[in-house]
Each structure stands twice: as structure tokens, then as C-alpha cells.
Amino acid sequence: MGEEKKRFIQEFVPGKQLTLSHLIANPDPDMFQKLGIQEAGALGIMTCTPSETVIIAGDLATKSANVSLGFLDRFTGSLVIVGSVSEVEMAMLAINRFLAENLGYTPSQITKS
Fold first, then answer.
1. Residues with Cβ < 8 Å from 43, sequence gap 6 or more?
2. Which residues belong to any copy of the BMC circularly permuted domain (predicted)?
3. What is the mean pLDDT of residues 56-85?
């Protein structure tokens, strides 16, 4: 008898949460070129669940700090914020705070590199 194979099925059950909040300070200029976005001092990367939340997050980012949206995808919940390090961080803090306090989301710790 051969070895019995086991199959695992994973199911993703999304909650209301920010699953990633990461700030990249002073990224390599090649990164901006490869992403196809304008060069700036920092990139803020966020992922929102459910994915449509990224629309709210993008609006909050541009209203709370002097940043621009490098990328927003309502199907995956991915958001890239572009600006100075302090402005990107301010926008990310505002997004985390608003979603947690007003919409009951689980916030994400902002990590940095």
C-alpha cells in the first residue's frame, strides 16, 4: 500500500480589517518606475478587507494628508499611497483610526522599512 495523501482545503472568511499597513521610506527610484507611479519620499502600502473598503481608505488618505494615490484596486483591496514620509504616515494613521473608530474594523500596526 502506498502512502495515503491528505488534501487540505483552506477557506478565507474575511472580517472587517486592515490586513497590512506598511510604510517604505525613501524607496529605490527603480521601485517607482516598476510600479509606474511618480517618485516621492515614501510609499504606504495597505490592504483592506472587504476589498471595497479601499475606496473609503483612498478618500481618507487624500483628505487627511498631502498624499496622492499611486494605486487603488477595489477588487483586491490594495492601496498604495505616495508622498513624503511624514504625510504618508499621517494618512495611514488616519485610515486606521477612522476605520477602527467609525466602522468597527480591526486596525493594523503600521510597520516601516
1. 23, 24, 27, 31, 70, 80, 81, 82, 88
2. 7-105
3. 96
**Amino acid present at 6:** K
Is 83 within 8 Å of 40 (Cβ atoms)? yes
What is the grid cell recorded at 36? 509606474
Beta carbons within 10 angstroms of residue 66's beta carbon: 12
Q: Are strands 111-112 and 78-83 parallel, antiparallel or unpaired?
A: unpaired
The alpha carbons of the chain give a radius of gyration, in whole angstroms, of 17
pLDDT for residue 10 is more than 70: no
Q: Which amino acid is at 46?
A: M
Judge contact between 84 and 66, C-beta under 8 A. Answer: yes
Burial classification of residue 12, based on how many CB atoms lie within 10 Å of its CB (0-12 exposed, 13-18 middle, 19 or more buried): exposed
Q: What cell does 1 get? A: 500500500
Region of 67 (left: φ > 0; alpha: ψ -120 to 50; beta: rest) is beta
